[in-house]
Give the backbone structure.
Amino acid sequence: MAVLSKLVKWARIKSPWIIHYNSGGCNACDIEVVAALTPRFDVERFGILLKGSPRHADVLVVTGPVTRQTKNRLIRIYNQMADPKFVLAVGTCTITGGVFRGAYGVLGGVDEAIPVDVFVPGCPPKPEAIIQGVVKLLEKLQKT
Amino acid sequence: METIELLILLLKFIVFPGAIFCIAYGFFLEWFDRKLYAKFQNRIGPLLTGPKGLLQPFADFVKLLAKEDITPVGADKLGFTLTPLLTVAVSLFTLLFIPIHSLTGVLSLPGDVLLVLFISTVFGLLIMFAGYFSGNRFSMVGTERTGLQFVGYEIPFALSVISVAAAARSLEITNIVNYQVNILGLPLIVFTPIAFAIYLISALAKLEKIPFDIPEAETEIVGGWQVEYSGKKLAFFRLATDLKMVFVSGLAAALFLGGPYGPSIPGLEPIFYTIWFIIKTLIVMFILSNLRSLFARYRIDQVVHGFWKYMVPLAVLQILIVEGLIFMGVI
């Protein structure tokens, strides 16, 4: 059994599929996330694929602060994902709400709605920083 | 004596050239396809999983097997569970008819071209069921699109295969391969280039690769028919897609490129034939990956129109050319 669980852990680290959701940001972080997928950075090297359906994905990449309108949708997408699932929050807004903090329609950071594994600060963070965030997430997975 | 023969047959079914070899080769083809696709887009593709990313499809498969398996409330439970299993089983069954290590497949019977064509239409039907049983609006759209695309590509696919069968005057894959090797001495692609092109294009539609990935169009309908599948079921669907790739390229090699025949040392034919099979299927996959990265997705009406307006008449023209060549005594 030990061998099998090792194999599964190896497979999980080698193929994290992501789904990208914008919970109300300004699109800058989205452009950086897309830049990480395109030829210059090409995260498919690590086995990362962008998937359309939450059922297929392992990592939920959230950008932007959580607005009151998208909160329920964010929770629903998180619940639709199959275990084991992880959340990567990209951008300063996902930590505190950023410049939108205190606005009437904004709830705050992503951890107000769903549990977050790794935060990537920056406004917007560079693709290198996003990849670093994914590496941190995989390191966390390695330890468990 | 009989038990030993039975054991050898069982080994043929399960290990080589049956299930295990085909699954391993399917993973290899997926890696080859992804790597080439990345190269054409100026990317690197899978790199860090095993040597040059060779184990990436295997890692994806194991990860999906270990994930949670969700059955939605609105889904038909029996159908939702059965379709992935049936898809893998059907794909493995068709592979038994493909000649890999010798000039005959593991199974061979008179008229197996028709049987293989029939079973390959079941692929499309199973995809429709898969979308229908998951009870999701996106999968329903995917199912409709699969059905419509199915109407388009199935006839040209069959006609292109039939033109080869007409040239060899046989409906048995073994006889067609034998005809190319022993009687003609040339691969049939020399006389049926149009049929080969039509075969490849409709094979792309059958595999739902990019110019024809309308049923799963991720940017439009999230994932099409497979939107609700997660965990083991998705793993089985991905495995079935890999097996279909082996089937399509293997059938192309058998019918158009002279099967697994090639120069070899007498006595070591199975090894050399397997190597020639791999080379020929890789050539076919190379062409398919090229097409996949060259084109953008078509609209569903463009696909059906294109197949019926251009592909079917061309396929009929190819059959007429073949008949003419036979009439003149060229082949």
Observations:
- The interface with chain A takes residues 34, 38, 41-49, 53, 55-56, 58-63, 66-70, 218-219, 222-223, 226-231, 234 of chain B (CB under 8 Å).
- Chain B has one domain: 21-328.
- DSSP finds twelve helices and no strands in chain B.
- The mean pLDDT of chain B is 87.
